[in-house]
Structures
1.
Amino acid sequence: MLDQIKGLHHVTSMAASASTNNKFFTDTLGLRRVKKTVNFDAPDVYHLYYGDEVGSPGSVMTYFPFPHIARGRQGTGEVGTTLFSIPEGSFGFWTDRLTKAGAEGIKADSAFGENRLHFAGPDGDGFALVEVKDDARKQFVGNGITEDHAIRGFHSASLRLRDEGATAELLKFMGYQQADAQDGVTRLIMPGGNGADVIDIETMPNIARANLGAGSVHHIAFAVENRAKQLEVRKALMDTGYQVTPVIDRDYFWAIYFRTPGGVLFEIATNEPGFDRDEDTAHLGEALKLPAQHAHLRSTLEQHLEPLDA
């Protein structure tokens, strides 16, 4: 069993409108845009990052907004719901705020002894807020949200699978431990993790596979401290039979990718070097930052990409 992985690093999804996406995450959810860059493989498309003040691993939601992309179809083989941690006693505030913002699918429930508030993002993305006691992670405060209510980072993510077996074994190999199971959901927890420590597997044997589109999670990333730890994980996964990509430099972290038995794309990302490698902390996410191979496209991209509010 591996011990290098420390919980979630980021979750990357698809969107149809960059400006709508930016407004939702900064204005409605009160997260900080910590980086405004472009897709490495499609530089005419933004890659937007939202998180806490510095973009700590375990707090960062990222998006590829492809203009006019069709909405995804929910199903198995994908991340179903991304859940954020909020302080206890925050439900009233968030219910009110989400309702005023016009969010759809607002519904309260509980699972595994935790209160949850579900809602949909602009493209039908599945989200929930979870009241967590004594989450000590420092939150970003702004946009009318105080420390008493602000999101502290990810709580968990759920995977929708037709069969949990092989993916559950993979997660256990990655260092997760089964903590509970109820109503067709198996909960796995990363002991001593970074706060974004939980993965729930929803088994749905009769549900068709998902189709990727706006509102779909493209991949889910797990955090390791540095490149040396990442190489250890890569070797262990390959020795177990997984087809893992070479290490890819993503400017703000190094990444490796592999497809899970249930169809979900997993990434292992480093905590280094971080989002302040090319901007100081006070100005994260303000300027358009381009990967070196796309720097020559700046004038074209600045004219093409949709303007975003600060």
2.
Amino acid sequence: MAETWLVVGLGNPGPKYELTRHNVGQMVIDELADRMSASFTQQKQAGARVAEGRLRMGGAKIIAAKPNSYMNVSGGPVSSLARFFKIEPDHVIVVHDELDIPFDTIKLKIGGGHGGHNGVRDVAKALGTPEFTRVRVGIGRPPGRQDPADWVLDPFGATERKTLPILIADAADAVQLIIEDGLTAAQQKAHAPKA
């Protein structure tokens, strides 16, 4: 029987935040849902929108989810979904924005600290372990003296928007690679310098 993975994109709910840097994780989930030709349904018990499917015939079953909660309280929906679908933390992938990684760069890891990311901190607390896979999508630090808290809630700039679809596609590719070939193979591809 093919295994099941829970892939969660962190972000904030509602149209006001939809296109902001903080919601890039949810943009990746939309891309995965498109690739699976799956539509989202409300999973009321968990407080999330969920799209289920496979990225290829006979491949792993994927539960792609976007919590309805705000970023800093993402843990509740993630742990509820993991319980509901009986998925262990080692089969949970969290896709999130990362200030300390330059824009248009993706880094993959399992476990470790939260690096000041409150959404990741809350997921680790709710799951009772930091040992889940993270797909960290670089948004870079704000220019000048802009507060990072404001920066993450701003929409992507015009220049960024030109390459954003490629970044989102790369992150979705990374998720697929983790599921199909394992983290090490996915890291080798995602972390390789761009040609």
3.
Amino acid sequence: MNILFITANRLGDAVLSTGLLNALGRRYPRARFTVACGPVAASLFAPNPRCVRVITVEKRRYDAHWLSLWRECVGTRWDLVIDLRGSGVSFFLWARRRRIMRGGRRNGLRIGHLGAVLNLDPPPLPVVWTTPGQDELAHEALPDVARYLALGPTANWDGKIWPAEHFIELARARPDLIPVLFYGPGTDEERRASPVRAALPHAIDLGGDRPLGEVAALLRRCALFVGNDSGLMHLAAAAGVPTLGLFGPSRVSEYAPSGICARAVIAPGPEGQAPIAGLDVATVLASADEMCPARM
């Protein structure tokens, strides 16, 4: 059985779709999955043992990337095509069945929109896959001799970033946890993380260009994740780490972290307009202490 799973370009949306892919894997345990996603999310799906191929869909002018995807897929007879991009590509492929998620804003969490594609209620929570080698690397980087506080001080735009001095104050308020910095590849991500790194010289810097399975394995070694609304936040929640997402001018009603132990802390003000700098450290620390009590 061949299943084509077309998912998001952005990391956060791709992570949220993993629960749906996992549910399909349980429903069709002998199926062969091909996943089409954006370049930033490709390494998220590579460790999935049922995924035989990951097709990277790089955006091009005039939507030419959809023509490229069609060329990659037209030679296969698909038993099922799941299109979470609403692209319509599946209508031009040989497919026994199609499930297409339409775009536009809706009420409720994003995972609810995704679950509705297969009429799953409650919707499946996101998951992550790692390889044994990635788990071993994570154990070497973060050994069992300490407990770790994962910090995600970056995001894809500055309006979503909690001030660096707040992250620094939070980390200093929990001396029982060794801070670990996570951020994505590229000079912009490194620049955004640098004030926190400079002020916490004892922190372990694990940011940069790592496969997402390895990042997830590292996050699983941490006692708590505190970070901005970002793909990294969703990855932490999917990995099962106690996850505290920080929200200002972004839609917590749609993109709150989804996981077995995840919650959001919201800056005061109307949704989508509240400056994240208004979220005080005491509020975040109180939630962090509830999710991860200090050891005496």
